[in-house]
Design brief:
alpha/beta, Rossmann fold, 7-stranded mixed sheet, transferase
Length: 219
Amino acid sequence: MKACPEQSRSDCRKILVSGIAELNLNVTDHQVDQLLDFIKLIEKWNKAYNLTAIRDREEMARLHILDSLAIVPHVEGKRIIDIGTGAGLPGIPLAICLPETSFTLLDSNAKKTRFVQQVVLELKLKNVAVVHSRVENYHPEPAYDAVLTRAFASLPDIVKLTAHLLVKDGVLLAMKGQSLDAELAEITAKKSVISVSVPGADVERCLVRIQSPEQVEVS
């Protein structure tokens, strides 16, 4: 039997609160409510906009929200752009939990940016801007402290496409799976790979950090 919306929200809240505690993050009750409202909006719009293949709310809580929040300790900079944000991931969960950081969420899919703009309006997120553009056509002024990507492209392609978005000492933060040897071998610059654990999810994740990618040579 399908759970009623109230029960489903309660179960999702438990998953989020437990996961946030495991990640040792400082998140308020209001922010948890915003995260739950975000899940509800994804579910509502998903039928028409095909935002995600994940349909179950509890799986969204784990594989979208907690997956995004797992990188909070490694997020750096005051101005961050999330490239290929899709349904607003990881940008929306990060913006909710890091209200002092300014986020730009960019995607080339107009339906998805319309959805993300609606999320920003309904959740009253003052620290989020939404941009509908291809990354290579977007030339912001000023540039960003960090570029963030999740399931966007291969590392060499990400470097080539996003270097122009960053300040001189900016960083690229790419959320990836664990099979990265071939991609990493093509990047001849200072980089680090940080293992990331997602509470309640049997998935392998890592965060690749590349310093000053405008100076990176891709072999």
